[in-house]
User: Which sequence fits this backbone?
């Protein structure tokens, strides 16, 4: 019988677990993604500097003085007072209906395409949206084509679902459609299934590139030819100063062939954890 300490713990069993290797009980998918970095987890990361207030570009975190804290406080108190039951209950399978209606109205105006609440599923930020997209579409061994470089957190999530990541080049005008074509042809010839071409078309992380209109058209046509979905990450789309980027891939495709992920994290505050997938209703 195991020896018990005064606090009731079984010291022998405790030591056994303390000496064990966690990798022995991890899933294969967890082993596949690795530990990652602090910024993958959304943590603030400080440069090795003695400066009191360095400007750190490692994480996509909005400038705190610009966050409308007072407006949030006022709105939250008003909702709790006036819509108590709705605010304190589950929001439904696809997310709170009122929020989906508001997001649909907002995106219709921004993207210039008529979308309804049925086009949206709300998630725990765009990272939650990505996780559910991967869960719904990726089988072990499926190919996902991504830009090189790309946001490491997204790539790790896909690797967690045992996807094969194929990288293609990106330049100032966006993803190389010629490279995508070659990757699609090679995967098809090898009998592999390509599920997505993942792209950050607007203000790409980390290069800052924006895909031009010509390449957007070419990418949509190419993916349609191969029956491969485009996974459009629109987390940064509204962070422009002089002029808006070209139309979204989702809008250019008429709402077909594209899953678009959006979020309030980069334009308001990361702590909101409010994101969505925008897609044809049959996908939602």
Assistant:
């Amino acid at each position: 019988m195991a020896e018990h300490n005064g606090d009731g713990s079984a010291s022998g069993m405790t030591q056994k677990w303390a000496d064990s290797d966690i990798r022995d009980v991890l899933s294969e998918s967890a082993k596949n993604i690795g530990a990652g970095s602090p910024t993958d987890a959304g943590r603030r990361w400080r440069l090795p500097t003695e400066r009191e207030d360095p400007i750190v570009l490692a994480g996509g975190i909005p400038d705190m003085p610009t966050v409308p804290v007072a407006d949030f406080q006022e709105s939250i108190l008003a909702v709790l007072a006036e819509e108590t039951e709705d605010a304190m209950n589950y929001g439904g399978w696809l997310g709170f209906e009122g929020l989906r209606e508001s997001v649909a109205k907002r995106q219709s105006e921004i993207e210039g395409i008529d979308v309804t609440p049925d086009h949206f599923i709300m998630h725990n930020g765009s990272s939650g949206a990505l996780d559910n997209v991967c869960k719904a579409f990726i089988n072990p061994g499926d190919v996902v084509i991504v830009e090189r470089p790309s946001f490491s957190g997204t790539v790790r999530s896909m690797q967690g679902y045992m996807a094969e990541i194929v990288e293609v080049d990106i330049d100032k005008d966006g993803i190389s459609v010629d490279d995508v074509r070659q990757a699609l042809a090679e995967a098809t010839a090898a009998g592999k299934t390509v599920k997505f071409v993942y792209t950050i078309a607007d203000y790409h992380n980390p290069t800052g590139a924006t895909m031009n209109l010509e390449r957007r058209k070419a990418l949509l046509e190419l993916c349609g030819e191969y029956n491969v979905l485009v996974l459009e990450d629109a987390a940064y789309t509204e962070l422009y100063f002089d002029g808006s980027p070209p139309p979204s891939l989702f809008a250019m495709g008429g709402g077909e062939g594209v899953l678009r992920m959006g979020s309030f994290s980069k334009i308001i505050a990361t702590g909101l954890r409010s994101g969505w997938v925008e897609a044809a209703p049959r996908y939602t």
In short: The chain is about 35% helix and 15% strand.
